[in-house]
Give the backbone structure.
Amino acid sequence: MTADLPVSAERNCPVINWNVGEPRPVHTYVTELGELREQAPIAWNEYAAGHWMLLTHELVREAFQAPDVFCSDATIFTVPDPEWHWIPTMENPPQHTKYRHVLNPPFSPRAVKALEPEIRRAAVETISAFKDRGSCDFVGDFAVRYPTRVFLSILGLPEEHTDMFVAWVEDIFAGFGGGEEAMAKMASAQEASNQYFADLLESRKREPLGEGDFFTTLLNAQVGDRAITDDEFLNIAEVLLLAGLDTIKSQLGYMFLHLAGSPGHRQRLISEPQIVPGAVEEYLRVFAIVMDGRKVAKDVDFHGCPMKKGDMVMMCIPSASRDPRAFPEPDAVDFDRVAIGHIAFAAGPHRCLGSHLARLELAVALDEWHKLIPDYVAVDTGTLRETGPQLGLDELRLRWDVSQ
Amino acid sequence: MKILIDANRCTGHGRCYSLTPELFDADDEGYGTVLADQVESGSPLAEGAERAIRNCPESAIRLEA
């Protein structure tokens, strides 16, 4: 990006051509978005099909809170007319609200808290598998496997399926914006996971499990005043797989890259465990990873920019979360920050369904990792790359002393 | 002072009841509810309410005299 961007008279904002899926050196995305935000709160990106970019905390939040204008018919900003329909992600109120009434209770803070012992066990067992080696690829050995274990455990699926789920999720995410080969692998992973959930549906119909079983509850759910359909059940299962695993992996990567280079922050997490939940909030803010998309539902003048029905909008949460108008010294990692009204989990009706589970998984990871491996360094960081549009590291090499 | 949660704005981020459980709780879906709707101005509870207000991502909480 350059300092003086051309301004479009028609769109009344700067115009750029910014590749949103390109691997870049780690932290480049948030730096470039920050530069853009300080030039204008709204920009137009000519990349791919073209889309608006909302860059400040205030505007991103306002748009999330206005689903009648910024609707969820399409949520990947480079794909205005998707061939898929995710539930509840791509629903709009009032239908969206009906699905959330079904899905909110099993993902409520109370329900999630009851799973904490299982989550701790998943963390400890995953770390124990490589602890004595003195090194790991944090992403591949921990950040991918741990949330997958938690996911299976919460949904009542066998732990032995971890490797299978890890492979599906990797193939599916590599397929978004990937080449022909990646797309083919994505399609076969989607087919296999669909079949898995279809078999599961049949199995739960034949032999329903108790009240605590997620998929039995889902099978018996009422969407408004009617029973859930098989298609809805399978759609939701697939969406949980897509939404719940890669996000935690990415968030953990940035957190532990920071901690590996900051013994002071690490020490505080160890000596003051009560600050862990606040630290999680701060990490969610400073390393926000999601750049959600919305579709403009009707012609509107949004803060001076003429948006047309059908235009796509990129909700730049990573830049909103470091907006100095909302957060003083936004680039600093400050565990003592008193006001963190971040929107890393979005805002408005689509507030991340799994946010309470995510927070607990991140807190448990900070807790249990540092009990087992308190001192570590990141190696080969010069070659670290991140890839958008959902920001994440491909690998992170950590090393620690095992001589004692 | 009276603490109010605007149910039209609250989407269940849960910051209020995580930070100030003595004033707020969660319903079965995770939306915030007010436990003690009256707090004395300047009291520690009022400070807790202010903290929840400043951390609510939706600006759904307010204090009324």
Summary: The mean pLDDT of chain B is 95. The first strand of chain B starts at residue 2 and ends at 5.
